[in-house]
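Listing 4. Sequential folding, example run.
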Amino acid sequence: MQALLQQLQDIIVSVAQTELLPRFRNIGHNFKADGSFITEADLATQQAIEKVLTSNWPDYAFLAEEMSSSQQQALLQHKQAGLWCLDPLDGTSNFANGIPHYAVSLALLQAGEIKLGLVYDPNRDECFSAIKGEGAWLNGEPLAQQQAPLPQQAAIGLVDYKRLPEALAQQLAAHPPYRSQRSFGSVALDWCWLAAGRAHVYLHGRQNLWDYAAGLLIFAEMGGCSCTLESEPIFNDTLQPRSAIGAPNKILFDPWYNWLQQAKHAAE
């Protein structure tokens, strides 16, 4: 797996630097049926990565964001030896508007588990990666362990308000249980930054498999705690969009989870 991870890192870094960086600030965008952005860079990056992966690992199938939902569903239901799960440009809205915060996210799914994950941020040249049960890395070096946990009142929260139930979002805005809040626009990097200790509590109302698969594994390999707003595991080997609660350790996770559950029930 370590050799595979290094091969994948070389592929993803090369494609991102070839297909994404030269197009940044130099490209227009269109809108998909759901109103989200899509650019030439999304499609070019996906095509380049798919070509290399299917050539080198023909036994593994390939699922990516810029496919039809019927194609995605068929791939996930048919159990292959392995399934690549790619978001070629996580943070397309940022990319399309000239905000340098986006990433390529790639995961390998096997036997109903996320076995390997890689998230590359080409602007910072940071490649986060993980192998299930073996740890997580940043640019090939072990990802640093968290410092002593902060109290929740001193924490930075990564919170995406847009996709939350309205009543819960209003309670968070009016009575935040953390010191300050951020929302950067890339789910994959959210998970990696949590794993790296750059933020301390997390909440997102709706993320897709290709958004979270790689980052969630990186976060989990650093000992992070997570679940959905319904108290279920986030990854369930389906295409169902998932809410996400997270924190790097139980000292932060438990009061954050409890606050959210109380706020959620109060709003019902």
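-- end of first protein; second protein begins --
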Amino acid sequence: MNTASRSPLISIVVPLYNEGSHVKELLSDLKTALQQIGCRFEVVLVDDGSPDDTWAKIKNTAQILGNVRAVRLSRNFGKELALCAGLERAQGNAVVVMDGDGQHPPSLVPVMVEKWQSSGADIVQAVKVRRGRESLTSKLGALFFYTILNKLSGFELKGASDFKLMDRKVIDTWLAMRERNVFFRGMTAWMGFRTIQIPFEVAPRRAGKSGWSYLKRAKLALIGITTFSSFPLRLVTFAGMIFFLFAVGLGVQTLYLKLAGRAFTGFATVILLELIIGSLLMISLGIIGEYLARIYEEVKGRPRYIVAESIDLADEKTRLLPPANRGARPANYG
């Protein structure tokens, strides 16, 4: 057995959405970075139903690296589920997850691999020291979300990113979690494997603008909170107990005033209390509804994604490696 066959295989998983304008540059930068590693490698590209020419550019430029696997999803399923599609097809001894918009520098991949090999860590996580160009509302929203999630879940995710290297055993464990409401960063932290961190600065996007609208960010925030903490449900119970005690106290006071002959009309007070209680009930029903929606999505049992087309230019040694356990689902479903 030669040295090349014994060297570890590194998989690079990159979800893409409307990145057709710079796919060629991305693959070229990855090739330059991967040549420094001295390991075998493969690149797994996932086109998340891009309406532009991303898939055409992937097919035209995949020859730059050679060892490329790529899939095109039938529609836009979202970044988290696109990551699932990529991780299920990655066959490496270690897997690097990164964005395809240029904000995760490929030049950091050799550093991650070196840290993985030298430290024995299971996860090498790139942590943002600067978030790059973002609006004030985006920065405040991210700060608020991670502060709440850290308090509710007990996991420190502030500054964390999806840019990380994970050992094969981490990937296999992650793939065993078949939930459909996926929050990649939270699920990775929940597993609790040995993690080391390396800092990086978020680079400017290569082109275009982020596909993360405020609505998509809010949806991901709800998924993150409801899948990693039941505290909001307990908060509903706590608020109900407080209002119950308040109602008992108010009832005792009203009865006393009635018996003492000092009862008085309180139209404004009654209206105010009804508005407060009504608002609390609507908010409580909304919180419960969010958890019911998560349960509903899980029990339907639909595939997490559907693959419309795929290409595989990986070399023969890569193809001979055993694929990750994907359960009994067909290859084109997640």
